[in-house]
Amino acid sequence: MLVKKADEIKSSEITDENLVLNRRNFIRGAILTATTLGTGWLYRSLTSSGKQPLQTTQTIDNIEAPAPGTATLLPTDTPTSFQDITNYNNFYEFSTEKEAVAYVAKDFVSRPWTVTVEGLCRKPKTYDIDELERLWKPEERIYRHRCVEAWSMVIPWVGFPLANLLKDVEPLSNANYVEFITVVDPKQMRNQRRSDVLDWPYREGLRMDEALHPLTILSTGLYGKTLLPQNGAPIRLVVPWKYGFKGAKSIVSIRLVEEQPRTTWSDANSREYGFYSNVNPNVNHPRWSQATERRIGEFGRRDTLMFNGYAEQVAHLYAGMDLRKSY
After folding, report:
1. Could you give all domains of the chain from N- to C-terminal order, each with its CATH number?
2. What is the pTM of this model?
């Protein structure tokens, strides 16, 4: 993990852009065409039903590269290339094919945009996306990203702590959970026109102490650039110790609630996708091992870390819970 504010990044710490981007030239094709260990019960049902959507595997190669000076190296993790992060995505609203999302989503319009924060709070408010970035100056957060499908990345997010937003609306004492609701826009998101993908809108949730944790952010960019549609533009949730599907994308509403909220993947298949879904190498997914992962842009596999490597920061949140029940 690395947390830096923009004005704290020294030139001596900057990773040369070419070192990050050019290393993909030899391995990108081989790695990204490999079959994932699984894509979940829903995706399996889609691919076996004969109702697959029109797909494309065309990548977006003309995305403007990030300017130098936007990422710093971690001791053990090299940031995944900008091209891989922006061309290998799970975003079912657009497509169930990872390498098709960027192409399908390329014309998605994410401004103007507002986010409403309401529910059990003293000062409910609707924020304009640009207002959010003015209120809380974005910071660089280089986090490991672990998908439930056993692949991973290292992503230089840009964002601000979710706690800043929640404290601004002053939660009531009985606000125990935070619910995230994402946009419904079938004109722009073609899979929302279908009844056999997921129930829309996409919903996620966190316990209040998870939401207030300083590692939890709302991201509005990556690699120093504005967030692209395929990565959840204009604003998405990032909780680095949880599996990636917990990171709701294109958020339009945040609600503070008393009871644990329903979440989309738990509704679709509660046996495989639970509410907490903390990264845990000791608890296998019902259909594959979670002990190792495939880092995009690398050969071979690496061991998965408890809480995705953030145990020191977050393990106390789950004291007394049976960690064998990650799902």
Report:
1. 2-318 (3.90.420.10)
2. 0.82
